[in-house]
Specification:
The chain has ten helices and 15 strands. The protein has 372 residues and is α/β, with parallel strands linked by helices.
Length: 372
């Protein structure tokens, strides 16, 4: 998979921009706050229809404009696929091959991206919400059915929480309606649980290989999907649904008191272990960073295994955050394999490590000049 062209109109600090890419390594070089990250953000938005930096889409639109436009040409095998994203104050619109896509699941997955930024080094020690977002984002790109199941789950969860609140305020008393919502929640949520668990198992396989290589076979990495539903040891959907129902029944009174759903994928987490020791609680900063790097790089092979195409890698000023050993392993993992877009303030830490000739763009106050 290759991104061969990128076009921006009224996106962040770019009024109009068109770039063509011919190489596997593209570097955006410049000082901080010049617009380098905005380019990576636009590629991410083209793939995922939203930003990784903000939930407010208005921030993506140039300050004195009412709409923004991001487009790109994606090469997959022998196909050249034009993608378009329109952002307005009323919402967003997407097109594939110039045809509007009404469903998010019909659009996401056309361009697969993996973003690695300094904040991703906090994947291990950060909040559970960060790891749930990671799961949903990565699985959603590879699995349109998961994206649909997750959207259904979130929709029912919102309805159920609203009804629990109404019951607490004595504005609603229909236990039958609550049980119907519970049944619907379990049906959608169990599918989400099963897909996440299977993903965690496959991710562990690839991540452990990388982790052992970085640690020179001194450490074994395991990944555990930690759920509020005790379904470990089974991938039978009917059994998961039964256990999910049981878990909800146990907290029914507590949910009414707290006015929220207390069990399900929205409260789950990923746990990382090195040599059977919990990295989040007991790992050193170096172990936490190595784990995060192994997990992010493992996605490259996992996506290739799932889709038959390597994703595009976005490295946002992450090289300066890694020591020489981790930089070397990162560059080895991507070399001649994935198209990589990299932002940096200097080439000093890359000069002697790159074996492929990069395409370099100099970025200065929203203006981009291609290097010779």
């Amino acid at each position: 998979m290759l991104l061969t062209n990128l076009q921006l109109k009224q996106f962040r600090n770019y009024t109009e921009l068109s770039l063509d890419f011919s190489k596997k390594l593209v570097i955006f070089l410049g000082n901080n706050a010049q617009g380098k990250t905005n380019i990576l953000e636009s590629i991410f938005a083209l793939a995922m229809t939203r930003s990784h930096r903000t939930t407010n889409e208005q921030e993506l639109i140039h300050w004195d404009c009412t709409e923004a436009y991001v487009a790109g040409e994606v090469k997959r095998g022998h196909q050249q696929i034009p993608l378009e994203l329109f952002l307005t104050k009323k919402g967003r619109k997407t097109k594939v091959n110039h045809i509007e896509q009404k469903k998010l699941s019909s659009y996401i997955g056309q361009l697969n991206v993996i973003l690695f930024a300094p904040e991703d080094l906090s994947l291990v020690k950060g909040s559970p919400q960060l790891r749930r977002k990671f799961l949903d984002m990565e699985i959603g790109q590879m699995n349109a059915v998961y994206l649909y199941d997750l959207q259904q789950y979130q929709k029912i969860l919102k309805q159920r929480n609203q009804y629990l609140k109404q019951m607490a305020e004595q504005k609603a008393t229909d236990e039958l309606y609550l049980s119907i919502l519970t049944e619907q929640l379990v049906e959608a949520g169990s599918k989400v649980l099963l897909t996440r668990q299977r993903f965690a198992q496959r991710l562990e396989n690839w991540a452990n290989q990388l982790h052992q290589k970085i640690s020179q076979s001194k450490e074994t990495l395991t990944i555990h999907y930690s759920s509020t539903v005790d379904f470990e040891g089974t991938d039978d959907l009917a059994i998961i649904q039964e256990k999910y129902q049981q878990a909800l029944a146990k907290v029914k009174d507590k949910e009414k008191y707290r006015q929220m759903t207390l069990v399900g994928p929205h409260r789950d987490d990923l746990a990382f272990f090195i040599n059977e020791k919990n990295v989040q609680n007991f790992g050193s900063q170096g172990q936490q960073r190595t784990t995060a790097l192994s997990v992010k790089l493992a996605e490259i092979d996992l996506m290739h295994e799932e889709t038959g195409e390597y994703p595009i890698l976005l490295l946002d000023d992450v090289m300066s955050e890694l020591d020489d050993v981790r930089q070397m392993h990162l560059l080895e993992a991507i070399e001649n394999k994935v198209q990589t877009f990299l932002t940096t303030t200097t080439l000093e830490h890359l000069k002697n490590k790159m074996t492929v000739e990069p395409e370099i763009y100099y970025v200065d106050q929203g203006k981009i000049i291609k290097g010779a």
